[in-house]
Amino acid sequence: MTGPSRSSFAYLGPEGTFTEAALLQVPGAAAARRVPSSTVGAALEAVRAGDVDAAMVPIENSVEGGVSATLDAIAVGEPLRILREELVPITFVLAARPGASLDGVRRIATHGHAWAQCRTWVDAHVPDAEYLPASSTAAAAYGLADGQAHDDGHDALRAAGYDAAICSPLVAERLGLAVLALDIGDVTDAVTRFILVGRPDAVPPRTGADKTTLVIPLPEDHPGALMQILDQFAARGVNLSRIESRPTGQFLGDYFFSVDADGHVEDARVADALKGLHRISPGLRFLGSYARADRRSPAVERHTSDDAFGAADAWLASILGPAADAPPARRKAQ
How far is CA 7 from CA 131, 306, 307, in A? Predict the structure, then answer.
């Protein structure tokens, strides 16, 4: 889906999250039905169940790296397909109820990734503050707002008691909270990458500036196992922009790799790499090929271009002659 005709979207809620901001960047999403979900898993399950057409979830942060909840949830269960990605600059504020002061902050609620990105500021300005985990930055803000009633953990947060929340400026303004400090992130140009996920009906068309996301199980742990996987990309000139290992949860030491490769499955070099990977790891999961949010085209060497792969196929066919079109078993018999 490049620009939607879809009518309903789930996203990591509540309203006012950075995830909702990412969803609103999708053409047509502002006029569509938007359904906040309490967790990444719940948003993806809404897609699998057919309750919504697609879901927006975070997958990577420029400071904290991969979002484990998304990497794990999308790697198992009924297959899903990434349709597009969006980038959102991340700015945090410290918000509290009206009348509060920075001196009175003893407990701060926020999402774990936000807390990690603001620790230096917190240590310098409220070093004795205690951290209270929240399902999202917006959930922490809603838990502070008087008179709010939601079913995704805000009441539980409020019952636990805390003085301030680290959240986006938008949600603080929307809820009428007092902003005690602006732009408290440790990195001023932090960006979070979000993916729009749907059912595996089709692959978005190739644009020339694409990304392919894969889940690659490690079928056998032995010396050089990872090198075998990486060689499939390197030999075909496919650059990896992200590679992370995640535990399968089956037993200690059992992992899969979550990978972003530059290029589209319709690119000859990427398609050939996927065939090589499938031979090594038959449990390979293709999560999608889609346009890069930054529209940056990869550098492709001449010998890994589509023309080079096509020329090689034609050369081999000229050697094999008419038998080239026959299945391998038939060619052997001939």
Answer: 38, 36, 40
**Whether the predicted pLDDT of 39 surpasses 70:** yes
pLDDT band per the 50, 70, 90 thresholds, residue 218: confident
Who has greater pLDDT, 145 or 270? 270
Percent of the chain beyond pLDDT 70? 90
Residue 58: pLDDT band (50, 70, 90) is: very high
Helical packing angle, 306-320 and 268-280, nearest 10°:
70
Q: Are 22 and 88 in contact (CB under 8 A)?
A: yes
How many Å apart are CA 35 and CA 220, to the nearest integer? Answer: 41
User: Mutual orientation of helices 40-48 and 68-75 as an angle, nearest 10°?
Assistant: 30
Cβ neighbors of 299 (< 8 A, separation 6 or more) are: 239
H or E element, residue 55: strand 54-61
Strands 107-110 and 54-61: unpaired
Domains along the chain? 1-91+190-201 (3.40.190.10), 93-181 (3.40.190.10), 203-300 (3.30.70.260), 302-333 (no CATH)
